[in-house]
């Protein structure tokens, strides 16, 4: 058998904390990647996946990291002991990397063309005129629509899917032998995720490329990987081919990961719930061009209307740019809009900031990224109690007790209230954000992608927490998400948006089992987990091409595993 393209051998990674103290984050891991092979590295946040990937190209700061044991070999040559000059020949040329967050990775001050040209100039020595045709070809190849119009665009002018595609184009421009993809689909909609997966598959074949794919999304790993390495607390606890991992996992942690998909049903609604929020004919316009005597405007939310009852969860779904978050911002009165917004029977659409203040405590929001929404200079007690200073007249001891009570409510240790956001995991930070919103005892909670950046095990905990809090306090939720399994588990009612308009809405079970609009059908075609949906006293099975392919693949995997078992028994 030929030598592996990349071989990680007994690797340990530690960070320097003080003069002679180190903290080991990766311990004695080993894996190989052969030519045209995809290895998936899976596990929860903090398991050491990204640190391992960054170590391959020695991208961690050398004054802060040490490698107590092991080596990393690329085509038989050590990368850990290579000189900077040798590493520069490998980085970008032979090994490229797609980072998790393209908005952070792309330079906000440079256009798309300038950033892609820089890659071709540095690694392939191309001149600008020659490079432009190559850039256009690759932008088209990764599925960017009207690539000529995108050359002069800046990262903030692109959607999440477009930014990720630009990052992929940047990584493959040099025709690398190995592509490291670190969570490249985490924040993308299901339809865009499917396109990115298909694109990576095609590029792997076309360029004879190998891939190290880092993800916590097991359904994507199942479609893309050849082999899987499962990491927990810096160690590889299970390493095998895809068939074995998914059909016969050996380690308890692997079994936990595979069983952590969102499940269950929404809580039972009260018998006669009243209407809490009513949105009618909501419109939001933005100015796209400003001129001396005129300006050009574009509607990004067009004639949107829906109702949320007391104790009900309404799911808002659609692709990036469909107007979901803009609709939420308009309801919160954080952006200007036209139309009727009635909360508990009161028009709040034209209230002044002063008159709106009493309603602010009754409508709260939890944002997608808790790390960005939590003030890094405040400790947890200051963050959670901030709203109390504005809306409640409490003594210092009463505020402290309120913080302790709400932290216990959301599953946080009150002893940690003097720590800062950087000292918490992603799941803990999301609990802090929920505690901050709930301490004011709101009636409506707007949840904008609250679980999209979390591992499935943490995601499951947050969903369970939200359901229990809703049951206890009869909270109403507006739940914005692109994860359809989360929507089905949480929501009573679903609103589907496309290009600023509502294309379909109705009871969750009805929409999932009998979608009427073509766009809804397309979205649900990427919902690859077969489910039994109850409607009209009979059980309906939602079946689509994706699910049929999944069933065929499972049968194929089982046959391969059974054949391998039979072969082993014969040898014995």
If you had to describe this structure to a student in words, what would you say it looks like?
It is a single chain. The protein is α/β, with parallel strands linked by helices and 572 residues long. It contains 22 helices and 23 strands. The strands form five sheets. The protein has a six-stranded mixed β-sheet with strand order 7-8-9-3-10-11, with helices on both faces. Helix 5 packs across helix 7 (160-172), helix 15 packs parallel to helix 17 (426-438) and helix 16 crosses helix 17 (426-438). The longest helix has 27 residues, at 545-571. It is globular and about 70 Å long. It starts with 5 loop residues before the first strand and ends with a helix. The model is unreliable at 529-547 (pLDDT under 50).
Quick structural summary:
Helices cover 39% and strands 25% of the residues.
Fold blueprint:
Blueprint: E1 6-16, E2 22-33, E3 38-42, H1 49-56, E4 65-66, E5 71-74, E6 77-78, H2 84-90, E7 95-98, H3 102-105, H4 112-124, H5 128-141, H6 147-150, H7 160-172, E8 178-182, H8 190-206, E9 210-215, H9 218-224, E10 227-232, E11 235-241, H10 242-247, H11 252-258, E12 275-290, E13 295-309, E14 313-317, H12 324-331, E15 338-343, E16 346-347, H13 353-360, E17 363-366, H14 370-373, H15 380-391, H16 396-409, H17 426-438, E18 444-448, H18 456-473, E19 476-480, H19 484-490, E20 493-498, E21 501-507, H20 508-513, H21 518-524, E22 532-535, E23 538-541, H22 545-571
Parallel strand pairs: 3-9, 3-10, 7-8, 8-9, 14-19, 14-20, 17-18, 18-19
Antiparallel strand pairs: 1-2, 1-4, 1-5, 5-6, 10-11, 12-13, 12-15, 15-16, 20-21, 22-23
